[in-house]
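Thread title: Can someone regenerate the structure for this chain?

I was given the following input by a collaborator and told the matching structure tokens would be attached. They weren't. Posting the sequence so someone can regenerate them.
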Amino acid sequence: MKRTHLTLALFLILVSIGAVPFLASLVAVTQERYLMAPNTAMLCMTPENWYEVHGPRYCEVYITKESLPTIRKGTDDYPVGTVIVKWKFDKKEGGSPELATVMRKMPPGYAEQHGDWEFAVVNSDASQVLARGRIDSCMNCHDDYKTTGYVSREYLNEEREPTDAPQSEKRRP
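Best answer:
Regenerated them for you:
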């Protein structure tokens, strides 16, 4: 998927979940595609594809710029409106994404026991929202990350500074 297609797909995701103002402020958290743990790769997929997982899965993660310090610190003070987009791929380099998962920090009271996060799953070209809202499988998994604001941070490389997305020349696909 070329950078211009990724830009369009990110735009479509943000439009579909009502978060368009955040498009220009997304930055890459991952410097290169991160090899996902097999159990995480299985959980972060659409039900119709559960039996099609063979081999490793990789992800690229983006976050709203103002929330970058929070994810890097690993604290739980994400501001309302934070958007985190995780693209999932079946290849370390090249290829098209299989899907995207999205988290958006909602106002207090949205889902108090799960950090007030809204979740969404979007198809590979971001033309269709497959699921959105208080998705049980997402909330149950992210509950394990309560101390870091319900956000997994395994894909962070603490030694590198994230780059702007999706305009950066270093970004793929």
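The domain at 3-148 is CATH 3.50.70 (Chalcone isomerase).
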